[in-house]
Design a protein that fits this description.
- This protein is mainly alpha-helical and 374 residues long.
- It has 15 helices and no strands.
- α1 packs antiparallel against α6, α2 crosses α9 and α11 runs antiparallel to α12.
Amino acid sequence: MSLGMGRFVYTPIMPLMQDQAGLTAQAGALVATANYLGYFLGALLTMLAPRTFRTRTMLRACLVALVVTSACMPLTRALGVWFLLRALSGVASAVVFVIAVNSVLTTPSAIEEGGTFAGAGAGIALSGLLVVWAPFGHAWTAAWWSSAALTAVLTAGAWSLGTGARPAANARPGTPQPRSGRWFVALLVSYFLEGLGYIIAGTFLVAALKQSAPGLADTAWVLVGLAAIPACVLWAGLSRRRPRQVLLPVVLALQAVGVALPVLSSSGAAALVSAALFGGTFLAVGMIVMPIGARLGVQRSVAVLTVAYGLGQILGPLLVTPLLDQGYGPALLVGSVIVAGATAVAALLGVRCPRFATAPAESTPVHPAVRETV
């Protein structure tokens, strides 16, 4: 949950910063990109230097960094300092995420797999509640300080988290894994497009709803986090009964619709449905994609997929920045179209790729590559 707070709290606070701290839409996109760049760099560091960055000492240092970087945001109005703080928060978020996922994803339990990703959803919901309830006032400075305080409380649950992967129960070592480079390329393209498209909504959804449905904007972000909690467990359970590459285009299609809804309708119902669809899919995509890549037998597939996804996150806000003078609607439409493209590629994968990625039983082992999930 501390990860969800540290990484995503900027989204509901950004409109407050625009109203009270002089943050422009273009500058807001730049600060958002800093966090995505930091997350990308943090993931690379955990991959290239695991002995340094996958330790309990580093975990605790990064948990502290999530608190400190949030607490320091209100101390300045310098765009360069905000950029640096959000970049450092991104690095810390990546390290915490890698260690957390590595500690549980080698178990075949749908509840544990889904619960790991759902924790980020809970952090998102809490970040939105801070703005809705405004326990310390409606100032942007109070929002950052309260988020730092809550992040500090949440770090207690992760302070003693183990850093090593646990072996899956009843795993069958040596299970042959199919190899198919061309299908991995299709998966890579789809996941890159997802990173490129989803992050546009992840960055600007609240700000867009402030324009189209101002009374529901903050509530919608809370709903994003709340929807992610049961959805991650649900999709994890479905992936035990259906091939993951068949589920993937379904999840992506739902997300594309959710991203476009606030543009197609300014009603409160559309805003809430959009939030529920977005929250119910964006964390689940990564949870579904990683085992597909591992079972395709491509070396270090998870790391390669994460690099592609991270690059998409960096480029997404920059891609739509020239459109922000026209409001956030055009940006969301671009994001929806990109996710629709990811859906099309994933649909090809689901139809043509051999269905080896089904994991119907608790005895199905998790491929060792999943242990490097970033």
